[in-house]
Write a structure and sequence with these properties.
Helix content is 34%, strand content 31%. By secondary structure, the chain is of the alpha+beta class.
Length: 105
């Protein structure tokens, strides 16, 4: 995934004692933008956004079926996910390694 994070830190009120962040995150041609009182809040909101659009497929079981039928079934599942807004796909043993990441569950 190609990703780019940028933000602008601003003083919100006339006294200059309130900091506000305008946050932008780009990944795979998609853009997420938000504003909040801290960069941490912006990043947590981004993680929630990514989690809502993520799915993981694992391959640790032996499946006793026709390989062509399995391929067709998997293709249908991926298309269904994509049609319903999923944009981040994690597959295989990588899922186990990424298990603790905030947007993979």
């Amino acid at each position: 995934m190609k990703e780019k994070e940028s933000y602008i830190e601003k003083q919100k009120d006339i006294f200059g004692d309130t900091t506000w962040f305008t946050y932008r995150y780009e990944v795979n041609g998609m853009v997420y933008e938000t504003s909040a009182g801290s960069l941490d809040i912006c990043r947590k909101a981004r993680d929630k956004w990514m989690k809502m659009m993520s799915v993981a497929f694992t391959g640790h079981r032996t499946i006793r079926t026709n390989k062509y039928a399995l391929s067709v079934s998997l293709n249908e599942e991926v298309r269904f996910c994509y049609e319903n807004g999923i944009r981040f796909f994690y597959i295989g043993m990588l899922c186990k390694a990424l298990h603790n990441m905030p947007y993979v569950h």
